[in-house]
Amino acid sequence: MTTTDSAAETPAEAAPEAPRRRRWCRWTRLVVALTVLWSAVLLAHLVLSGRVWWWSLIEMVPPFALLVPPALLAVLAIWVARGVRWRLWTVAAAAFVIAYPMAGVNVGSLFTDGPSGGDADVTVFTWNTDYWHTRWDDPEAFYDYLLEQDADVYLLTEYLTRTDRVEEIDDEAALREHFPDYEIVIASEQVTLSRLPIVDWAALDTEALIGPDDPGAPPADDPWREYWTTKILRTDIEIDGEIVSMYNMHLSVPVPTGESSPLRPEFYDYVEAQFQRRSSQFTVLNEDLDANPNPVFIGGDLNSTTLSSGVAELRDRLECSEPDELMPTTWPEIRFPFPQWWRLDWACTGPGLAVADYRIHSGGGMSDHAAQSVALDVL
Question: Residue 104, by phi and psi: left (phi above 0), alpha (psi -120 to 50) or beta?
Answer without folding.
Answer: left
